[in-house]
Design goal:
By secondary structure, the chain is α+β, with helices and mostly antiparallel strands. It is 45% helix and 21% strand. The chain has two domains: 43 residues; 107 residues. It is built from six helices and six strands, in the order E-E-E-E-E-H-H-E-H-H-H-H. The relative contact order is 0.11.
Length: 152
């Protein structure tokens, strides 16, 4: 494994353990430069291809999914472990669809539905980007239609 700090490939595993849900192995690594970093090993059932709204195809990128979810959850009271479980759940759900090609809308809908339950503010944040609101009134109409905040 290449060290993300010094870019050398001389690293060793100092600790290895499964995550709580058992779908991933977390490894703590130590580089000869002295830096420690964490890697994750996951099962990948198939190569997924995402079909974008414009018809373009690209390989499914778990990191891209992860970044968008972390942005939505920024400064929210959701811990990293819960977030990682959520990301893993979405990834597994996509693989369990049994399709090699998945519409980006399918992914966006899964994330929105999950965030709706996890954190209403993150849900609205994600929706504002995913639904590409053009004007303030689009945003206000969306928030008025959802009942996430009415329950609380």
């Amino acid at each position: 494994m290449i060290c993300p700090i010094c870019k050398k490939g001389d690293t060793s595993v100092v600790d290895s353990r499964p995550t709580e849900d058992g779908t991933t192995i977390r490894r703590r690594r130590l580089c000869v430069c002295g830096q420690r970093f964490t890697t994750f090993e996951r099962v990948q059932f198939r190569e997924l291809t995402v079909i974008k709204k414009n018809g373009r195809k690209s390989p499914f990128d778990r990191e891209k999914l992860s970044k968008s979810i972390y942005v939505a959850l920024k400064k929210r009271p959701i811990d990293t472990e819960t977030t990682e479980k959520f990301i893993s759940k979405i990834s597994r759900s996509l693989e369990e669809l049994g399709q090699n090609e998945i519409l980006s809308n399918t992914i966006g809908t899964m994330v929105m539905e999950g965030l709706k339950e996890l954190d209403p503010v993150a849900y609205v944040r994600f929706a504002s980007v995913y639904r590409n609101f053009r004007e303030e009134k689009d945003f206000v109409q969306f928030v008025d239609r959802i009942d996430v905040f009415k329950k609380r």
